[in-house]
Write a structure and sequence with these properties.
about 450 residues, alpha+beta, 3-stranded antiparallel beta sheet
Length: about 450
């Protein structure tokens, strides 16, 4: 026995003989062929069911999308039916292994129906919920698999309009490799029914994933690229797209929320940043253009695989672990990060935590550790803080320590004292952090001179 697919009914029925639910009257057998099993989803434009094709000897499953019409008479309804047929034909022409096949379309009473191939598996939204944040390697894979699909549909003058993790399905191993990504729930028919059925001004898409031009009612191929980019940064962070965009500075701040151990490479970050540009001229113009950039970046990444970069390894050869410092900087806890920096510097030269460092300690400081500390501060302050930033400023004033302190906002007399009034904000002057609270003695300029020389030799 099955349940009525009407979510408000859920009354048992016989799957072989029933045509209508005896309690709510819901039609259970469409066209004497498709037996509705259960409701998959309900939206503003209709209802989606999982069904069985009773005329198929294998009793294969399929997905039926029912588009409901507010008005069943007049020219607007006739126009809706005409446009629905045209768009159904266009959907049927999209023969691609990563797009569900359109099996049939028909009209019944005043409702319009699409019958599509059922794709077994989980959506990327479901994977995120059960498996956690996606890695950089997984994001490369998503882009490699889906950009060619977008190129395929855009060449055929079709725009998906609703790219988001919930509409990207990973086909299960049954009937597939278990790795194939499938683009589901096209918004083409929704767009037609929305406009033709007098939903004038209705926008098809999901808030947070829609490009600015799509929110204004004008969807373009580049709008799908925007949705793909937002989907990727959501999968990397697990944070709502609304919270990943800073309205005050009019920019995406998703990089600030990357907490997993493997930081996103600059090449991938640059591609994602361009996919989600608000301005159309600054965004990729086509999936083909984005693919060229993607393939070029992959080749460069492969050619440099195995080559370590300063700051990539968060554990130095001397056993000092910098993951906690990285996490503090990601969260912009500047004061705690400054204190942690001093502790890590002591560990690197094998002195008790809280010990003051002399110029001889700086001269013997391991370059690997110094570079990791500096790279972390620069990366998560957007190039505002770090020892190398201080070096640039020190060089610009010709090694004049007084002018150096003035430039970075330090009190010259209290430069290494606990009485120094530091600003633990990103708005502090460039080079303001990390502090030199670790410096021993009173000849403060000697420590900056030693640090400057060490950075130059590393």
């Amino acid at each position: 026995m099955k349940l009525c697919p009407n979510i408000d009914c859920l009354y048992p029925h016989n799957v072989d003989t029933a045509r209508f639910c005896i309690r709510c009257g819901k039609q259970l057998l469409l066209k004497d062929r498709y037996h509705l099993l259960h409701l998959i989803g309900r939206g503003g434009f209709g209802i989606t069911f999982l069904a069985v094709d009773e005329q198929d000897p294998t009793k294969s499953h399929c997905v039926i999308k029912q588009f409901c019409c507010e008005s069943a008479t007049g020219k607007s309804f006739e126009k809706a039916v005409e446009l629905f047929r045209q768009e159904a034909v266009r959907l049927g022409e999209l023969q691609h292994p990563q797009i569900p096949q359109l099996l049939e379309y028909f009209e019944l009473d005043t409702d319009l129906y699409l019958v599509e191939e059922w794709i077994p598996g989980k959506t990327l939204a479901e994977e995120l919920e059960t498996q956690g944040l996606f890695s950089e390697a997984q994001i490369w894979e998503i882009l490699q698999q889906l950009l060619p699909v977008l190129q395929f549909i855009h060449v055929r003058q079709v725009i998906h309009r609703d790219i988001k993790p919930a509409n990207i399905m990973r086909r299960s191993a049954v009937g597939g490799t278990g790795k194939d990504l499938v683009l589901i729930d096209f918004g083409v028919a929704k767009q037609i029914t929305a406009t033709a059925l007098l939903y004038t001004g209705t926008t098809v898409g999901s808030p947070g994933y829609m490009a600015p031009e799509q929110m204004r009612g004008k969807a373009l191929p580049a709008s799908d690229l925007y949705g793909l980019g937002v989907s990727c940064i959501y999968l990397l962070t697990g944070i709502s797209p609304f919270d990943l965009f800073d309205e005050t500075s009019d920019r995406w701040v998703w990089r600030d929320y990357i907490l997993n151990k493997d930081a996103v490479s600059n090449r991938l970050a640059a591609i994602l940043d361009k996919l989600v540009q608000n301005s159309l001229p600054q965004r990729y113009k086509s999936a083909a253009e984005a693919l060229v950039a993607l393939n070029c970046a992959i080749k460069l990444e492969s050619s440099q695989a195995g080559k370590p970069k300063p700051g990539d390894n968060l554990k130095s050869p001397f056993g000092v672990d910098y993951h906690h410092l990285r996490d503090l900087l990601v969260l912009r806890q500047w004061q705690a990060a400054d204190k942690q920096t001093w502790a890590l510097m002591c560990q690197a030269i094998k002195k008790p935590i809280g010990s003051y460092l002399f110029t001889s300690d700086i001269e013997n400081f391991p370059c690997e550790d110094l570079e990791i500390i500096d790279e972390l501060w620069k990366k998560y302050s957007k190039g505002r803080f770090g020892f190398s930033i201080q070096k640039q400023i020190y060089d610009s004033v010709d090694g004049d320590y007084g002018k150096f302190c003035t430039a970075i906002g330090w009190n010259l007399v209290l430069a290494t004292s606990s009485g120094q009034q530091l600003s633990f904000r990103l708005s502090a002057p460039p080079g303001h952090l990390p502090s030199h609270a670790w410096a021993a003695g009173t000849q403060l300029w000697r420590h900056m001179s030693a640090l400057n020389a060490k950075l130059a030799n590393c």
